[in-house]
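Archive entry. Fields below.
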Amino acid sequence: MAPPAQESRGRNSRDRRETLTVPLIDSHCHLDAEYFGDEVDAVIDRAVAAGVVKMITVATGPENAKHAVALADRRPEIFVALGMHPHDARLWDDKAEAAFTELAAHPKVVAWGEIGLDYHYDHSPRDVQREIFAHQIRLARERGLPIVIHTREADDDTLAVLRAEADGPYRGVFHCFGGDARLAQGARELGFHLSVTGTISFKREMPVHGVLRGVGMENILVETDSPYLTPKPYRGKRNEPAYTVHVAEALANIFSVTFDDVAASTWQQTHALFNRLGPA
Ligand SMILES: [Zn+2]
Ligand SMILES: [Zn+2]
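PREDICTED_STRUCTURE:
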């Protein structure tokens, strides 16, 4: 697959990047062995070549978390978020908690998540999802870690759990944001940033674009959610962190700003939020 740097692009193109000093960070991807196998180093190298010099790989279970931390140990570009995904909330037990909390002490673990509620698939009973979501919010807070929120078809309950567990403003992000103005406002009131994926590139104008403009660029991060949600022009292929470039381009178009503006803003915001990423 050709590196994205060789693709032709529009007016916010990274072709002007020869002079670019601000790199990109993919704030949410899944570099698990089951998706990328031994290609993972080539995938990371392609991202770096495209200007995506840091990646947060999100481990959704204890086994994946071990793999993610091992990857972060050997690749300086890789940081880790870990937590039980709402799909697997029913699998939470003392053993899982012990594994997650031990790994969370690793210096390259920058966040707890993704945690939250998914009522679209209902892979775990909803009451169990809510209980394990609340429990993990507390585990994150005890460790001073920001949280990464996954919510699907559960807007009201997600906000209700967060409000019930709040202890001042949160540090965290609603990842893969595709919600309406009400969810955006609820998230912002609780202190959260929003993060967008390639889904914002699917159409020229989408309802979520207006919601994002209302939220403001300074509160938005970019992510690929690789290997899912491949942006244009690669739809149908496996997603990978190098394509953060296309998410940033789409965001630049939504706000009518330059690619470099998006790169600078998202870089700075992501480092402020995930403070263990090191200096911005
Ligand atoms: Zn998610
Ligand atoms: Zn994810």
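CURATOR_NOTE: Residues 126-142 form the longest helix (17 residues).
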